[in-house]
Amino acid sequence: MIVFNLNCSDCDLSFEGWFENTKDYNKQIKQGLVSCPSCNSIQIKKGLMAPNVAKKSNAKILKKNKSIASNVKRLKKIIEKEFDYVGDKFSEEAKKIKYGEVKERAIYGEASIEQTKELIDEDIDIMPLPFSTKKTN
Q1: What does the pLDDT average to over 49-77?
Q2: Backbone angles phi and psi of 85, in degrees to 5
C-alpha cells in the first residue's frame, strides 16, 4: 500500500489517496476514478511527498496505524459535513442523480452487495468508505 499526497486542481484541496502501487494510481487517474472529496472534480494531481525512510523498530508501524486512523477520522468528518446522508436509499438516490431525476449532489449511505453490483453495472461511480456510515441518534 502506498499513500500519495493529492491536490485538486479545481478547489485546491489537499488530501491523501491510498493505492496498491504507482501503477494502480496511474490507472485509476486515467480512468477518472480518483475524485476530490470536496468538489468531486477528477482534476487531481500528485503533490510533493517526503521519502519514507525506514526505522529499525516497530515505531514506524505504530505511527502509520495512528496516522491512518487520524486520516479516516478526518475523512469521516468531511463526508458527514459535506455529503447528504441517504441511509439505505443510497442505491435509489445514486440512480436518480445519474439519470437526472434529482439535483446532482454528493451522497453517502448503505447499499447491499446486489445494489452495489447494479450501480457498477450502470456505470455509477461509487466508493466504499473505510468507516461505518450508519447514523445513530
Answers
A1: 71
A2: -85, 120
The phi and psi torsions of 91 (rounded to 5 degrees) equal -60, -45
For the segment 31-48, the average pLDDT, to the nearest whole number, is 90
DSSP for 68-137, please give it: HHHHHHHHHHHHHHHSEEEETTHHHHHHHHHTTSS----EEE---HHHHHHHHHTT------SS------
State the virtual CA torsion across 44, 104, 85, 124 in degrees, nearest 10: -70
Grid cell listed for 61: 508501524
pTM: 0.50
Taking residues 9-23, what's their average pLDDT?
A: 89
